[in-house]
Write a structure and sequence with these properties.
The protein is mainly beta and 557 residues long. Among the domains are: 34 residues, no CATH class; 122 residues, Sandwich (Immunoglobulin-like); 157 residues, no CATH class. The chain is 1% helix and 50% strand. The protein has 1 helix and 40 strands. A hairpin with a 5-residue loop joins strand 22 and strand 23. The longest helix is centred in the first third of the chain and has 5 residues.
């Protein structure tokens, strides 16, 4: 409520004024007059549209979407709460709010400007049984900020498109959820592993305010609820790798860390119980010196907690600089002690190539790596199998070969193995095509090479891959979409994609994993969680953290 001062001094004001001070006549009166609020009318309107080409703009031919809830998110939590004003989009997707009588979400302490948060609630398209055709995915932010002071008649449109599940053969279970609790600093390099019944562990690296890094792990139950709080594993500069035994009793986290003084890396690991209790402290696999650098490539476990770590050793020569690397594997028992000596796997000619390792339930394992031929005229992806005693099982197998670089090189290899020993090798052809091939436990091919996806893999990041007990294979990767036309962004936005190759060789359709599309989503990993289920983790922007680690579970239709 506001007020103003008025006076009935009309006759007095009309009188001639002398140069002397005149007294106010006795009949003059000052009165207080109460007025109505003088709030400037404000409104928000727009349309919800079917963004078929996913460019974030309402283009010709893209119809409006009826039946979606649009609400004023006063507390800015992304959820429509009791008391928050809402409406439902009409037959042409239109909506409108008169915000004049609605409290603003924020009032600026410096300018006094009033701000509203207009949000949409996406439909998932499922039936009452939780199964159904698919879900709606937003192509614009799920909320819009409106300055009602400077934009009293705001126009805000929202876009979405329908993602079907039927062709993919799988569907999301629940919603994407954050793995990290602490949100200070950037969370990155997310990895995941699971046991035979679906419990899983997520590990990642946090960049601290002082530039240092911390490796964090967190254990989750099969239903997605957290079993532990964040486990502070170690201080490290490198990305972690993680493995979980089939019986769920052991978790192994490994990492590398760079020392600026020696200009070299050291590699360590740590063992936890399935409940998150430390079984060992940080165990040094190999320490870096001024002439030796040891970097992590991968870690894998068997059914009861025995494990293997794959790493590479490079040496420094004053005349030639760093040379190598020598690719090695070290086996460990479930209590974290070394099981025999280091195994020499290979001496790749390709210094910066990828390498990976996987293990079956009994302890047999397979190592895969990028290389070039001895004369350096072409790139190759090789694998070597080992038995439970760490001895070579069969000879070296070349999965793929290509040019030395550019459009037909083969790089970024990775491997996954199930409890019975069936395994799958992935690699990138020409920097853009993700390919894979499945192998039987004896190393013979179980099928032809499969072309999984076409995307920008030029960064050299291997795809995520997992294989379940039945032989179904799941792939995950980042698809770098180009900036929305008309925006000033110079960076592409990323989506995390997933695709299933059935045990019978049927390749399903691609699904987008992340529900949040604002910001960049990248760096995915996947783990099979039993009965055809799997979980995907990635880093990016989401509810509660603009640089966090998120997880999404999936199950067969």
């Amino acid at each position: 409520m506001s007020f103003s001062l008025t006076s009935s001094l009309t006759s007095w004001l009309r009188r001639p004024q002398s140069a002397h001070h005149a007294r106010t006549p006795a009949r003059a009166r000052l009165a207080v007059e109460w007025l109505e609020d003088r709030t400037v009318p404000s409104s928000v309107q727009g349309v919800m549209f079917d963004d078929a080409n996913r460019n974030g703009a309402a283009d010709a031919g893209e119809a409006g979407l009826a039946g979606f809830t649009v609400f004023l998110d006063v507390n800015r939590d992304g959820v429509q709460n009791v008391g928050e004003t809402s409406t439902v989009t009409g037959v042409a997707g239109q909506y409108a709010f008169d915000t004049t009588s609605v409290p603003p979400a924020v009032v600026s302490a410096t300018t006094g400007h009033q701000y509203d948060f207009v949000a949409i609630a996406l439909l998932d398209g499922r039936g009452a049984d939780g199964l159904g055709a698919g879900r709606w995915m937003n192509t614009t932010a799920t909320f819009a900020i409106v300055n009602r002071t400077t934009d009293p008649a705001a126009l805000r449109n929202f876009g979405a498109y329908f993602q079907p599940f039927a062709g993919a053969g799988v569907q999301p279970v629940g919603t994407e959820t954050p793995a990290n609790v602490a949100t200070a600093g950037a969370q990155s390099n997310a990895v995941v592993a699971a046991d035979a019944i679906g419990n899983y562990v997520v590990a990642w690296r946090t960049t601290n305010a002082d530039g240092t890094g911390t490796v964090i792990a967190r254990v989750f139950n099969a239903n997605g609820t957290a079993r532990t709080s964040e486990l502070v594993v170690a201080t490290a500069t490198g990305a972690p790798e993680v493995a979980m035994s089939g019986d769920g009793s052991r978790i192994v986290v490994a990492w590398s860390s760079y020392n600026a003084t020696t200009n070299s890396s050291s590699t360590s690991y740590r063992v936890y119980s399935g409940a998150g209790a430390a079984v060992t402290g940080a165990v040094l696999i190999g320490g870096g010196t001024s002439t030796t650098s040891i970097s992590l490539d991968g870690v894998a476990t068997g059914a009861t907690g025995n494990s293997v770590v794959l790493y590479r050793t490079s040496t420094f020569n004053k005349s030639f600089g760093w040379s190598g690397p020598a690719l090695k594997a070290q086996r460990y028992t479930a209590n974290g002690s070394a099981n025999g000596g280091a195994i020499s796997v290979a001496s790749p000619n390709l210094i910066n190539g990828a390498a990976s390792v996987a293990m079956d339930g009994a302890g047999n394992f397979v190592a895969v790596w990028d290389d070039t031929t001895s004369k350096g005229v072409s790139t190759v992806v090789n694998f070597q199998r080992y038995d439970t005693a760490g001895r070579k099982a069969g000879g070296l197998i070349t999965v793929a070969s290509g040019g030395l670089d550019g459009g037909n090189a083969v790089k970024a290899s990775s491997v996954a193995m199930n409890a019975s020993g069936r395994f799958v090798v992935t690699y990138v052809y020409g920097g853009q095509i993700l390919r894979a091939r499945v192998f039987n436990p004896d190393g013979t091919a179980a099928g032809a090479v499969v072309q999984v996806a076409t995307a920008d893999f030029s960064g050299g990041q291997p795809a995520g891959v997992a294989i379940d007990g039945a032989g179904n294979v799941t792939f995950s990767w980042t698809d770098n979409r180009q900036p929305t036309p008309g925006t000033t962004s110079s960076y592409p936005s990323g989506e995390v994609h997933v695709r299933r190759l059935s045990a019978t060789g049927v390749l399903g359709e691609v699904l987008i994993v992340n529900t949040t599309t604002a910001g960049r989503q990248s760096g995915s990993a996947v783990a099979a969680t039993g009965n055809g289920k799997f979980v995907v983790v990635w880093e990016g922007s989401g509810v509660g953290d603009d640089s966090g680690v998120f997880a999404q579970q999936f199950a067969p239709l």
